[in-house]
């Protein structure tokens, strides 16, 4: 999962043109809520003991995103936080996530299913799921709009521009889901209270055996060179219809802006 700046808040950049993730309000990325929901649904349908672990990278505030997942029903959470990670791109992010999943496997066993959102709501690259699958040596089923499971088999529907695909895979696998998979559940009061007793571990890069030189802005393959504040909204133009010419005036205005 990813902890992202609240889109309704005053988002801004740091002096090095990286996103300010400490001084602004943040929350669990909406697109990742669908991943949590699908993981919980798969657990509810599965036979036997299943553990859902919510994993996130970010500053201490990112723990709020994990607590949201725990309130929804996840069993445990892991937060990777280290100052050296700031400014990391998708390549470094996938590395840290892969190492964290391997670390979690040491105590819980190898993951049968790794579920992610289709993209983050801040960067929106959609690159991390595929990179993560490659690092973990897992087959990948991405952009699933419908997910069905039976035993160790998984079927997913992927809607493309020209066709719809139905893809089958055998666990273990990495799955990324879209916002078409169904609304994520809202944490109940019981879930909120239960989340307070669920384990939340913290890892650093040293815990994962990742060298600080492999992550961060200096190691990034891409970087933002310049940012410009969005200009304030200007007053709109009002089209009146006092003499019956309103429709024509509106059409002319829309045509001048190339809307029609």
Give the SSE map.
Blueprint: E1 3-5, E2 26-28, H1 30-45, E3 53-57, H2 63-72, E4 76-80, H3 90-108, E5 113-117, H4 128-136, E6 140-144, E7 146-150, E8 153-159, E9 164-170, E10 173-177, H5 189-195, E11 200-203, H6 205-208, H7 246-256
Helix pairs in contact: 2-5, 3-4
Written description of the protein model:
The protein has helices at 30-45, 63-72, 90-108, 128-136, 189-195, 205-208, 246-256, and strands spanning 3-5, 26-28, 53-57, 76-80, 113-117, 140-144, 146-150, 153-159, 164-170, 173-177, 200-203. With 260 residues, the protein is α/β, with parallel strands linked by helices. The longest helix is centred in the middle third of the chain and has 19 residues, at 90-108.
DSSP strand (E) fraction?
15-25%
Order of helices and strands: EEHEHEHEHEEEEEHEHH
Strand arrangement, major sheet: 3-4-11
User: What is the CA–CA distance across the termini?
Assistant: 41 Å
Q: Mean pLDDT, as a whole number?
A: 90
How helical, in percent, are the residues? 25-40%
Rg for CA atoms? 22 Å
Count all strands and give the number: 11
What general form does the structure show?
globular
Q: What's the number of helices?
A: 7
In the predicted model, the low-confidence regions spanning at least 5 consecutive residues are: none
| Helix-strand makeup class | alpha/beta
Largest sheet data: 3 strands, parallel
Summarize the structure.
With 260 residues, the protein is α/β, with parallel strands linked by helices.
Entry keywords:
three-stranded parallel beta sheet; alpha/beta; 21% strand
């Amino acid at each position: 999962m990813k902890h992202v700046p609240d889109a309704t808040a005053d988002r801004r950049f740091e002096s090095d043109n990286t996103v300010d993730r400490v001084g602004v309000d943040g929350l669990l990325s909406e697109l990742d809520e669908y991943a949590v929901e699908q993981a919980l649904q798969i657990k509810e349908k599965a036979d036997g003991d299943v553990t859902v672990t919510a994993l996130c990278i970010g500053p201490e505030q990112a723990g709020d995103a994990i607590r949201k997942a725990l309130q929804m029903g996840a069993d445990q959470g892991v937060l990777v936080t280290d100052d050296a990670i700031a400014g990391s791109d998708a390549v470094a992010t996938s590395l840290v996530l892969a190492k964290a999943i391997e670390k979690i496997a040491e105590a819980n066993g190898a993951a049968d299913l790794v579920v992610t959102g289709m993209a983050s709501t801040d960067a929106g690259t959609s690159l991390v799921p595929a990179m993560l699958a490659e690092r973990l040596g897992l087959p990948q089923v991405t952009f699933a709009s419908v997910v069905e499971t039976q035993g160790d088999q998984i079927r997913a529907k992927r809607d493309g521009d020209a066709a719809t695909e139905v893809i089958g895979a055998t666990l273990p696998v990495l799955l990324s889901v879209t916002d078409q998979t169904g609304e994520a559940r809202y944490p109940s009061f019981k879930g909120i209270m239960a989340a307070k007793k669920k384990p939340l571990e913290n890892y650093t890069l040293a815990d994962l055996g990742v060298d600080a030189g492999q992550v961060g802005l200096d190691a990034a393959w891409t970087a933002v060179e310049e940012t410009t504040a969005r200009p304030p909204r200007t007053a709109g133009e009002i089209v009146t219809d006092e003499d019956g010419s309103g429709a024509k005036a509106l059409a002319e205005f829309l045509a001048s802006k190339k809307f029609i």
